[in-house]
């Protein structure tokens, strides 16, 4: 379980995250939603241990700030929004980097995991391609494969591991959005946990077990999507008058990911 | 990219090729070392010297002379060439990994100028230091001063160019230019106030050549360079992670700040020791890693040892060229590396024009 209590982050004197509390349980997809600039990514960075923050923060009961980087790396892996690389690495070399945390010293085993991870993100056979030549969506999936190899087993020594994904489907087409969200769901089903910053509210409603809605650094609402996603919340947080589960006028096409047959 | 046109082995795995290239470079290093001790303005024969060494005593006056030429002149020069070439190339590769940019070269971004300023400071003002202190550091005074100068320049550059863990390329190159110009200006002021003897020392030193190579120089610069080169392979995995970004490297379990500190100090030490011996030699640090990344890929576990070998080979080859092309006179080696390296650098810039946004 990842637990944050009264978490606050100041960047250049400005309060970006304001006494936010959040709980992410193993076996659940926890989504963080909110408008641009509401502090979602900063919250994720704080929980990842990457930036200075105040308040309580634990992973499986241990203070996140007191763990060494290598200890954190065995318990949680982080997918950033975008990763640019200046050097000509192959896809295989990038994914293998996720396996360099010291837990996977068996080369044959590491090789098998790297191949499995690429297959999981629907990039089978991409090992020999150059990262810089891939499209934005393909690059994002390569990074996700690398992140997953870092904590490939969702449960380590009886403790759950956590995937922290910052807008994991932002560059993806609709089919791959579903593939990746299903992958996150499966990771939870096998005993791990997922925290994801999300923009797509339909996908959130579909895949999140628990969600936190943020506005101006504060958690406005938290709970199951059915409780949090209300007409009132949409107007208060996003400043947008709209109806949850409302249908458009007859004749206007609309496509919901919920209707996909996988 | 040219790199993309090179055929890749099955599944993007270049470790086998990298090992092969490193083995070939190691053999080539030995060959170049032999060739370098065998060629020169004099007709001294390595074979004769080797025979006389094996038999114990020099068989004639002629082979006594040859022995001095080969053992006391050519051999230390060749060894220093290998060491300095290795230091320049590995430092380049490490700085490029740290700055996440293939254009970071100690010679370009002011580290060498900082080291040069440190060295000139020691030559001109070193006499004012307490004799006890000078006696303590002895022959290491010049390399130490160059190291301090290089370290100061590197730290200053890093502070200026990096904000929130992101290094701006444009800021880095421009700040490097400014630091280099500032260091050169202060060096100029020092030369202005220097007396005749100091001026001679500075001029002789700044010619940037391996010509003054002696065993004492090998023994002062050698250990510093070898020690800093020995540290850097341990940073390889961390440097690989940093190519994905400093935050990502931290996520992957790397102690980023500690790694940066070790890398910067090691590079400053290697560059400082090199500059103290040979002056600034440009472009080896940018050309060698770039060529190797195209052949074996950017994985620092293989890139760093390969860069050490290829850097040594290229610098030694440049030195052979410099001292034979106008024999018995010599070209400064810096001219040779700049003649070959500057066009190459321009080519790299052109290729990266789109991605660097400069």
TrEMBL record, chain A:
NCBIfam families: PRK13548.1. GO terms for molecular function: ATP binding; ATP hydrolysis activity. It comes from the Bacteria. Belongs to the ABC transporter superfamily. Part of the ABC transporter complex HmuTUV involved in hemin import. Responsible for energy coupling to the transport system. Residues 2-241 form the ABC transporter domain. This is Iron complex transport system ATP-binding protein. It comes from Mycoplana azooxidifex. Transmembrane segments: none annotated. Keywords: ATP-binding, Nucleotide-binding, Translocase, Transport. SMART domains: AAA. Pfam families: ABC_tran.
From TrEMBL, chain B:
Gene3D superfamilies: ABC transporter involved in vitamin B12 uptake, BtuC (1.10.3470.10). The chain crosses the membrane at residues 78-99, 111-134, 140-161, 173-194, 214-236, 262-290, 302-322, 329-350. Pfam families: FecCD (PF01032). CDD domains: TM_ABC_iron-siderophores_like. GO terms for molecular function: transmembrane transporter activity. SUPFAM superfamilies: ABC transporter involved in vitamin B12 uptake, BtuC. GO terms for biological process: siderophore-iron import into cell. Keywords: Cell membrane, Membrane, Transmembrane, Transmembrane helix, Transport. It is a multi-pass membrane protein. GO terms for cellular component: plasma membrane. InterPro entries: ABC_BtuC-like (IPR037294), ABC_transptr_permease_BtuC (IPR000522). It comes from the Bacteria. It is found in: Cell membrane. PANTHER family: ABC TRANSPORTER PERMEASE PROTEIN MJ0876-RELATED (PTHR30472:SF25), FERRIC ENTEROBACTIN TRANSPORT SYSTEM PERMEASE PROTEIN (PTHR30472). Belongs to the binding-protein-dependent transport system permease family. FecCD subfamily. This is Iron complex transport system permease protein. It comes from Mycoplana azooxidifex.
